[in-house]
Amino acid sequence: MPYKIHFDRIDAELLKISPSGDIMLLRVLAAVIPVVLFGLDALYDLPVLFWLGIPFYLFCLAIYLQALLKTLLFMRKVSAELLIVLVMTVTLIDGAPLSGAMVAWFIGLGLYISFTIIRKNREKIESLIQEGKKTANVLQNQEVREIPINQIRQHDVVIIPKGAMVPIDGTIIEGESSIDESTITGEPFPVYKQAGAGVTSGTLNLTGPLQVRADKNGDDSFLSVITQEIEKSLLNKSDLQRRADTTVQILLLSVTAYAFMLFFITGSLHLMATALAVVCPCAWALATPTAFAANIGRLSRANILARGGEPLENMQDIKTLILDKTGTVTLAEPEVSQVIELGMPRQQLLELAASIESRFDHPIARSIINYAKAQGVSRFLPVEQAEDLPGRGIKARVGQQDILMGSAETLSLQDIELPAIDYTGRAIWLAVDREVQGVIVIRDIMLSEMQGLADTIRACGIETVILATGDNEEREAKRVADYINADEYYFNCKPEDKTALVKKFQAQGKVAMVGDGVNDAPSLAAANVGIAIGGHKNVNLAIISSDVVILGHDAQDLVTILRLSHKMGGIIQQNYLWAVGFNSIGLALATFGLLNPIVAALLHHFSSVFVVVNAGRLYFTGIEQSIIGPVFRKLDELTDRKRLCRDDSAVADSELAAETVAEPES
């Protein structure tokens, strides 16, 4: 576009004189100066102030005109700047520029506040994404070099230290270690791997250094490919925004057409200016973005980040909520939940198991050792020939006895007969000289505040709560589902299974997906609203794939999101009802000549102030405790939808952190 270079030059010059490099703030200041000067002239009849304000007025008009022309030429549509430019032009021609300056000032101020909150929230998200590790150590010509992951090529040898994330897909050529694959498979317990075994990017190397030969280029690794798929999926979420833009276009053009119709019928610029000043849909323009911004800012105070207002608006209409298990409603940390004695006393069984596990360093070993110590085991037996098996198990020799510890599958492969016993969780069987002596049951640590979580979620309007987990044991999935009182549960879910589950339930209505790992990322992106729980190992990818990010570890924050989303929906409804009613009355008064531009602008500002204050109570809880609080509470009663997720006692709290799960009102 030949004229783009000229607009770029103008923007560059405006940025030079804009406070903090913010053109929107420059608009506000450029409007407030003529408002003050014209206002003083109107009060004290000082024409010098009027003429002093004209250059600032024209400068403000030029800024808005430049923004309008950019939108028209580059995006082929009109923007709210059209009405501001018309109001300022008509009121200037009509000799009443104070009205135009006031309209420009208030709209500019409201939009500046709204978009500043949204921009800061987006910057916070982007800064978190940049924290993700982008490089890896590669062995080249007997030297270790740190290079960007996307520059790794097939067959390169990558050094992966203990405790580091695996950066590429490849095969172990040296070393052995337990690998935490929970971010990929959802399986909460580590998998032992040695030379010849494959590893996947995004997993975590827990217990020993590894050398891995890359099977693919860095750009083609699981992590890279899945990121590209997620970004493509997110591009498909713009339909709602496009429909909203179309509605705004119709509204702006309709207001403009009506104002010109009045002028052609009456020939009165005064009447046209009055109609534009009172009907200029500031309240319409501010109704949604101010509520979005206030809600985003309020959630951000509690370390809940939202990608704009659309996902928060969608939360009001969610029919199905799918919860991942590992790291979402559980901590992804194993604990001993039960010790079953079969042929050996409990204390002796624990002493033997802890002695063997003390030779290893992985989460299950630590959980057994810690439990044994808590039960009074104070010494470890001498252990010989302790060896990690390729599967999930350990063999060792203690004294003259051969010990085998592992899963039921591990013992069955050794033709050891297992008795039928009842347990809930993951069983670590212990056999001495091929005879089963006991079982240590391991399960993922459950957060106490998760009990009955699904009941609270359903009280917020969600119809179905589903637990989906990559854990391959149905008993464990059922235990967690019963604990939170989910409607259904699915286990052994791969990433594609969770995505298919999201799409299946989308046939019944909007779906929200809540998860924390890379394995959840495709389903987070596919859902109508994807919510990532913080504290996971790949924070950057989860943030990219999600609409809302809970930076803490508490899935109860879901209730906070639901409560504030419903409240936001009610406030937006109130704002639009107010805007319709006020503009209709104002337009009637203006059409019949019962207003002048100054009074029309003042009434218009009153309408806009109401909308901003009403939206502001999402962020500033003190508004509802002020003298005007009863007005807003009455509005809530008139527009409240089934009083979902409401807790009146929470209104008195000044901090969002105090807003945890409350009993829903019937």
UniProtKB/TrEMBL annotation:
PROSITE patterns on file: ATPASE_E1_E2
Membrane topology: Multi-pass membrane protein
Source domain of life: Bacteria
Chief subcellular location: membrane
Record keywords, A-Z: ATP-binding, Cell membrane, Ion transport, Magnesium, Membrane, Metal-binding, Nucleotide-binding, Phosphoprotein, Translocase, Transmembrane, Transmembrane helix, Transport
InterPro entries associated with the record: ATPase_P-typ_cyto_dom_N, ATPase_P-typ_P_site, ATPase_P-typ_transduc_dom_A_sf, ATPase_P-type_domA, HAD-like_sf, HAD_sf, P-typ_ATPase_IB, P_typ_ATPase
UniProt keyword annotation of Magnesium present: yes
Coiled coil: none
Domain P-type ATPase A: 133-231
Pfam families, A to Z: E1-E2_ATPase, Hydrolase
Membrane spanning stretches: 24-44, 50-69, 102-118, 250-269, 275-297, 576-595
Subcellular location: Cell membrane
Family: Belongs to the cation transport ATPase (P-type) (TC 3.A.3) family. Type IB subfamily.
PANTHER family per the UniProt record, alphabetical: ATP7, ISOFORM B, CATION-TRANSPORTING P-TYPE ATPASE-RELATED
Protein name: Cation-translocating P-type ATPase
Organism: Methylomonas rivi
